[in-house]
Design goal:
Elements: E1 3-6, H1 11-26, E2 32-36, H2 40-45, E3 49-53, H3 56-64, H4 69-77, H5 79-91, E4 100-103, H6 110-117, E5 121-125, H7 150-153, H8 156-161, H9 165-175, H10 185-192, E6 194-196, H11 231-238, E7 244-247, H12 256-270, E8 274-277, E9 292-295, H13 300-303, E10 309-312, H14 316-325, E11 329-331, H15 338-348, H16 361-372, H17 375-386, H18 390-398
Parallel strand pairs: 1-2, 1-4, 2-3, 4-5, 5-6, 7-8, 7-10, 8-9, 10-11
Helix pairs in contact: 1-18, 5-9, 12-16
C-alpha cells in the first residue's frame, strides 16, 4: 500500500506518526509522511519518505510564546495567511499516489485530500477529540461540567474550528476543485473512521463507542539503540543515584525564569539530583547548582527509564514515554488535554494528584517525594503497556479490507 500520513504541530504530534510510518515500512508498505519541514531530519534518520509542509505557524508560536497578550493577538491576526500556505502545501500532495490518508486533525486538510484522491480517510487521534461519549466530558473543555452534560460538551471540538471554516472552504474550492462546502471534522471522523493512538490501560473505550474506535495502543518509537548521549549527560547519570526529570515540552508558563527558580529550589529541598530539559523554553538554563544538569532534550524512550521521578506537563507524548519507562510521575498541567491525562494517570496509580494552581517549591518538593512512593505501581503498569504494540495494531487497521474498520 501507499499510505499518506499527514500531521501538523510540535514534536509530540509528529513522533507518533513517524513511529506509524516506520511500522508501515517494516510491514512492506510505502508510506509518505507529510509534516512540518523542521522534522525532515527525524524522518531521514528512519528512512521514511518525507514531504515538507510549511512550518511558519510553528515559528510564529515560538516567537509569541511568553511575550504577553499583545504578541499573542498580533500572532493570531497572522494565522489565516499562514494556514492557507500550509493547506496549499497539502494540496500539492494530490500529485502523489495514495491508497489511504491518515491525518492529524490539526492538519485541517487531511480528509479533504482523501476526498480529492477518492481514497479512505482515517483520523489518527492522539487524544479523544471527536467521538462523543456520556462517560466523560471532552478532554479539551476548560471547565468541569455535570455528568449529564458530558456528551454535549464534545461540541467544543467543532467550535474550535470556527475561525478557520472560511479559509478551508475557499481552499477546497480553489486548490482542490471540490464543492466549497464546510463539514465539521467531527462529521468527517464519524464518516471515515478513526485510529485512537493511546493505551487502553490509560483509557478504555467507553461502552457507547463503536468497536472500531477502541484504542490501538501507543504509537511508540523504540528506544534508539544507536543513540549516544552527550558526554556531560552520560557522566552525570553515572555519577550518582537516578535523578528527577523535569521538562514541560512545548508548554509555557509565561515566566520561565520564575518557573526554573521554583524547580531548582524544590530539587534542593528534596536533596535529590535532577535533569532539567528546557524544551521549547518553559525552563531556562542559567547558573545551576551541583547535582543539577540542564539539557535541551534527549529521547524520552532512552532517558526516562534512567529517572527516579518524571515531572512534566501531561502532554500525551511524555505521558506515553513515562508510562512505558515505569517511572512515577508528577504532572503540572498547563492547558488543553493535559489536565485530562494528569487525572487519568492519578487514577491509574502511577502519578500523584495533579499539581495545579500556584506552584511553590514546597508543594513541588512534597509532590516529588510522594510520587517516589509509586515506583512499584509504575513498573507494574509499564510491563502491561510495553506488552502492547499500537503500531502493529494500527497498521493492521489501515491495511484492512476497506481501510476504516478492523
Amino acid at each position: 500500500m501507499r499510505p499518506l500520513l499527514i500531521t501538523v504541530g510540535s514534536r509530540g504530534d509528529v513522533q507518533p506518526y513517524l513511529a506509524l510510518a516506520r511500522g508501515l515500512l517494516a510491514a512492506g508498505h510505502r508510506p509518505l509522511l507529510a509534516a512540518p519541514r523542521r522534522f525532515a531530519p527525524l524522518a531521514a534518520a528512519d528512512g521514511v519518505e518525507f514531504a515538507p509542509l510549511n512550518d511558519e505557524m510553528l515559528a510564529l508560536r515560538d516567537k509569541a510564546q511568553g511575550q504577553g497578550v499583545r504578541a499573542a493577538i498580533t500572532a493570531a491576526r497572522s494565522v489565516k495567511p499562514l494556514l492557507r500556505r500550509l493547506l496549499d502545501d497539502q494540496a500539492a500532495l494530490t500529485a502523489c499516489q495514495a491508497d489511504v490518508v491518515v491525518y492529524h486533525p490539526k492538519s485541517l486538510g487531511g480528509p479533504h485530500l482523501a476526498e480529492k484522491l477518492g481514497v479512505p480517510a482515517l483520523a489518527g487521534l492522539l487524544l479523544p477529540l471527536y467521538l462523543p461519549t456520556a462517560a466523560f466530558p471532552s478532554p479539551i473543555l476548560p471547565v468541569r461540567v455535570p455528568r449529564a452534560l458530558n456528551r454535549a460538551s464534545w461540541r467544543v471540538s467543532s467550535a474550535v474550528e470556527a475561525p478557520y471554516r472560511g479559509t478551508v472552504r475557499d481552499w477546497r474550492a480553489g486548490a482542490l476543485g471540490l464543492p466549497g462546502t464546510f463539514r465539521p471534522v467531527a462529521d468527517l471522523v464519524e464518516e471515515g473512521g478513526v485510529l485512537h493512538a493511546w493505551s487502553p490501560h490509560l483509557l478504555l473505550a467507553p461502552a457507547d463507542w463503536p468497536a472500531h474506535a477502541h484504542p490501538t495502543g501507543f504509537w511508540a518509537t523504540p528506544a534508539p539503540g544507536d543513540w549516544t548521549p552527550p558526554e556531560p549527560l552520560a557522566r552525570f547519570l553515572d555519577a550518582g543515584d537516578p535523578p528527577i526529570y523535569v521538562g514541560f515540552g512545548s508548554s509555557h508558563s509565561g515566566a520561565p525564569e520564575a518557573l526554573t527558580a521554583t524547580v531548582l529550589e524544590a530539587v534542593r529541598m528534596t536533596g535529590r539530583r535532577a535533569i532539567l530539559a528546557t524544551g521549547w523554553g518553559a525552563l531556562r538554563a542559567g547558573s545551576e547548582p551541583d547535582g543539577v544538569l540542564v539539557i535541551e532534550e534527549a529521547p524520552h524512550e532512552w532517558l526516562l527509564p534512567r529517572m527516579a521521578v518524571a515531572v512534566h506537563h501531561g502532554g500525551i507524548g511524555t505521558v506515553a514515554a513515562a508510562l512505558r519507562a515505569g517511572v512515577p510521575q508528577v504532572v503540572r498541567p498547563f492547558l488543553g488535554d493535559q489536565p485530562f491525562w494528569a487525572e487519568r494517570l492519578h487514577r491509574l496509580g502511577v502519578a500523584i494528584v495533579p499539581v495545579g494552581g500556584r506552584l511553590s517549591p514546597g508543594r513541588l518538593a512534597a509532590a516529588i517525594e510522594a510520587a517516589a512512593t509509586l515506583t512499584r505501581a509504575a513498573q507494574a503498569v509499564a510491563a502491561e503497556v510495553r506488552a502492547e504494540d499500537g503500531v502493529v495494531a494500527a497498521v493492521a487497521r489501515i491495511t484492512s479490507t476497506d481501510g476504516t474498520r478492523p
